[in-house]
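Field reference: sequence -> structure
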Amino acid sequence: MLKVGLIQQSNHANIESNLVKLEKNIRYCASEGAQLIVLQELHNSLYFCQTEDTELFDLAEPVPGPSTNRFGALAKELNVVLTLSLFEKRAPGLYHNTAVVIEKDGSIAGKYRKMHIPDDPAYYEKFYFTPGDLGFHPVSTSIGKLGVLVCWDQWYPEAARLMALNGANLLIYPTAIGWESSDETEEKIRQKDAWIISQRAHAIANGLPVVSVNRVGHEPDPSGQTNGIRFWGNSFVAGPQGEILTEASNDKEECLIVDIDMKRSENVRRWWPFFRDRRIDAFGGLTERFLDE
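Structure field:
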């Protein structure tokens, strides 16, 4: 069994207070026996992509840098593996949305740069983030190979599949997704259900557990053009048949602790041998943008 901690947290403008709360929650998860602790997307700050503002690039930091040093020391102290989500400054004018895995000894085990970058009202990520260039490769750690992807990546079955084909033992999605207040109730339900269903489908199609950690709470739009985002939480873990192992609320900060049977994937893949039956000889069209006549 692998004991995993998920930290679903609301964020505020004061970065240090966010970090202090994160550290408190990490310590709680470790005290409950968590070996792997997963944090939400861009966990240090507010979700700054609601507007396009060049001054907000000052939030970015190098990797390695202050956050990997701070959380690395904490991981070493608590003997846990941490999955971070950072605004990476790679070079002047070149920035990424980057997940970093910290090993139990405090070192950087590896990183993943978000590949799919959205550009929607209140989610102006293309202004800030260059698409990743590290491919879909799991990070090898003392607890297994972690297929870490980030938020918008979770809508793409190709990304999950390539992580699985590269030997991932589980899929991890740090996330920041929510509702705009003008959406009708029925539309909000459709959006959240689609988000859950798509990730459970990745678990089923690949015979792997999925860990998805979303932020929670309302964050106003600094420009006043929208009513801000109410992040819907609902962090969850699904097993390799899509079964829900644990699930958080839509409106509360929560730390979830869950046991994942890492041996179950082997049995599920024997029962449902999707990898055996894939027609790889007929999938060439997947590398095309669209199959025009």
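Note: The mean pLDDT is 96.
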